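Escalation from tier 1.

The customer reports that the assembly of two entities below gives different structure tokens on two consecutive runs. Tier 1 could not reproduce it. I'm attaching the input and our single run for tier 2 to review.
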Amino acid sequence: EAGVAQSPRYKIIEKRQSVAFWCNPISGHATLYWYQQILGQGPKLLIQFQNNGVVDDSQLPKDRFSAERLKGVDSTLKIQPAKLEDSAVYLCASSLPRGSMNTEAFFGQGTRLTVV
Amino acid sequence: AQSVTQLDSQVPVFEEAPVELRCNYSSSVSVYLFWYVQYPNQGLQLLLKYLSGSTLVESINGFEAEFNKSQTSFHLRKPSVHISDTAEYFCAVSWSTGNQFYFGTGTSLTVIP
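Tier 1 run:
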């Protein structure tokens, strides 16, 4: 089975520019997550979707970050404008609904963002 | 408050020696527990998980973890490590009331030849 796909793998931008990341989850996974992983830290949940609805975006800096999952499959995470402290790896993950015995999060390889 | 703590940020260990990576959580509801491994420049891969049933869970590459409800811990152990086990290890918790996954700060395991 195909895994979680993310693109691009790497991105370098200047501060105040905008950037977008794309994620395609595992087929059939209704839940999709975006995590931010700063160097030396654990992944921090930014936003969680259930189908095309937002379940949790409490840690998403909404003044500059936005995310959408219009058709309940692919998702896009956008940063506008970027700051130096946004330099991190952005991980996308997907999972089956609660109650499934395979209820773990499956991760993509991530997008490494460097803001200069 | 609900949280997950990994007490050791770095653990160096000699090849073929045993290792334990510690993970503690706090929660007022029942939990599901996971260990993920991250190799350089890669995403996270599930190592093992505890959902219910037997409190001792094992992975295919020799790691095991035991869910201890009274001590709110889920420590990861391996009796004999290999060079290839060098990686970052993350403990994660998912609470039964939701489907979010929360991660600890990670433990960097370095196996020394």
